[in-house]
Amino acid sequence: MSSLVPSPRVQRKRAERRERIVEAAFQAIAEDGPADFSLNKLARDLDYTPGALYWYFPSKEALVVEVQCVAFSELTTIINRERAAWEQQPALATQDLPCRRLHSLLALARFYLDLGRTEPRYFRLIAFSIDPRVWLDDDSAERLAPVLAEVFLAVAAPFIAAQEDGVLSPGDGAGRAVQYWTALQGLLQTGKLARIAPELFDVPRLGADSARALLLGWGADPDALERARALLD
Questions:
Q1: What pLDDT was estimated at residue 2?
Q2: Which residues contact 220 (CB under 8 A, 6 or more apart)?
Q3: What pLDDT score does 212 carry?
Q4: Cα separation of 155 and 76, whole Å?
Q5: Which residue, 43, 160, 53, 147, is CA-closest to 101?
Q6: What pLDDT is recorded for position 64?
Q7: 113 contact partners, CB below 8 Å, separation of at least 6
Q8: pLDDT at position 14, please?
Q9: Closest Cα partner for 112 from 181, 193, 178?
Q10: Which superfamily does CATH assign the domain made up of 1-57 to?
C-alpha cells in the first residue's frame, strides 16, 4: 500500500513554492501598497491560477498573516541588530549611563522615522497591517499576535533598561513603547502633507521633538537628554 506522506522531494518542492508565494506577496505589498494588493494580480505575477494559490493558502487572510509573520519576525531581528550597533558606538564609551540609555531611545525614534527610506518593505507592511480595510479573522489574528508582540518587546527593551537603571521613572515599559511608536507613526502618516506645507509638516524635526517630549515626561534628565541628542546628531 502506498504511503500518504509525500516524499521529501515533494515536500521540499511544496515548501519552495509556498516560500515563493509569500515573498511575491511581500514584494507586491511593498511595491503597490495595501490598497492594490489582490490575489488575482499576485497569481498573474507568479503565472499561477488563483486556484493554485488556494492550494497553499486557504484564503487571502491566511496569506496576508503569513506575510505579516515573516515580515515582523525579520523586523524584530533588524531592531535588535540596530540597537546593538547604537549601544556599541565608540563615542558612547566615555558617556555616563543616563546619556547612553537616552541615546538608545532617541536612536530608536530616528530609526523608525527613517524606516520608509532604509527599509521600505517593512514600512509598507506596517501601513498595510494598520489599514482599517485589512481585516483578519480570529484564527489569523491569534497567529499574528505573538509575532507582533515580539516586535514590541524589542522596542520596549531599551525603555525597560532605562527604567531599571533609574534613567526613566518607573512605569510600563511595553506601554511606553507603544505610545512612542504611536506618536511617531501618527507623524509619518502626515508626511505626504509636507509637499503642501514643508515648514509645518517637517516629520524628522517633529518626530525628534515628540520623542524628546515623551522622554522628558517619563522622567529623563534634560541635560543627559541634550547630550544624547548631540551625540546622535
A1: 47
A2: 98, 102, 167, 168
A3: 97
A4: 8
A5: 160
A6: 84
A7: 184, 187, 188, 203, 204, 207, 208
A8: 82
A9: 181
A10: Homeodomain-like (1.10.10.60)
| Average pLDDT per consecutive 10 residues, the chain (233 residues; last block may be shorter) | 63 86 89 76 89 86 87 93 93 94 97 91 82 72 88 94 97 94 90 81 91 98 97 89
The Cα 7–Cα 206 span in angstroms is 57
Structure confidence at residue 153 (pLDDT): 92
- The three cell numbers of residue 163 are 527604567
DSSP string, 77-122: HHHHHHHHHHHT-GGGTTS-HHHHHHHHHHHHHHHHHTHHHH-HHH
Cα 3 to Cα 6, 7, 140, distances in angstroms: 8, 9, 31
Question: How is the chain split into domains, by residue range?
Answer: 1-57, 71-232
* CATH tag, 71-232: 1.10.357
Nearest to 233 by CA among 109, 78, 81, 76: 109
Query: Are 123 and 116 in contact, with CB atoms under 8 Å apart?
Result: yes
pTM of the model: 0.85
- Residue 209 pLDDT: 95
Phi, psi of 73 (to 5 degrees): -65, -45
Q: For residue 222, which amino acid is it? A: P
